[in-house]
Amino acid sequence: xxxxxxxxxxxxxxxxxxxxxxxxxxxxxxxxxxxxxxxxxxxxxxxxxxxxxxxxxxxxxxxxxxxxxxxxxxxxxxxxxxxxxxxxxxxxxxxxxxxxxxxxxxxxxxxxxxxxxxxxxxxxxxxxxxxxxxxxxxxxxxxxxxxxxxxxxxxxxxxxxxxxxxxxxxxxxxxxxxxxxxxxxxxxxxxxxxxxxxxxxxxxxxxxxxxxxxxxxxxxxxxxxxxxxxxxxxxxxxxxxxxxxxxxxxxxx
Length: 253
Hints:
Elements: H1 6-12, H2 28-46, H3 59-62, H4 69-85, E1 95-99, E2 108-112, E3 121-125, E4 128-130, H5 132-135, E5 144-149, E6 161-165, E7 188-193, E8 198-203, H6 219-226, H7 231-236, H8 242-252
Antiparallel strand pairs: 1-2, 3-8, 4-6, 5-6, 7-8
């Protein structure tokens, strides 16, 4: 994905990345921060007050007879920032961030630092957690991914439908994976895990050390991007032809 810090970032990200040792919700501080954010959003959206015994830091709001909506909205956003700060570090197999083979307009890309077997877990895509409503308020959405509905819910509008924004988290290497816009070039498969607050990226085939990693962003992503860039310019800078894909495979084998 596009990023403009160049050599400084490439040097910083040349070291191996790390994968989740535990899923975010298995970290106590993150799990509690998530429960609090969910409770505050439920209060704001549905007027269902949380249990004051569970979240004593919100006792001042809960003691009031009338809901203080401006303060409640501010409290929700503070709770979201606290949840972001509580996101546990991600761990992964060796991955290298460097200039994308798609060309300068694509910015940086993510490359395999070692051979990867088909089906192997390559990376996690996580980040700041959002509902549909809060995701629509973001100014920069190019790193926002829809995970889907958690806990078996089918309600796309309510807070059960989760989105993650990897934009603010430079340590999440999956944010640098590009879309080559050619199904033959995709070497990763995306598996969304809303109940775990991340998506998994699995090797779709055996991947050789040095290959750039690609997965399908989905048509919705490109439709949104086309609103900000000319369509011809957009596709010219990201599409790999079949011959280019074959040449890249030969170079890394």
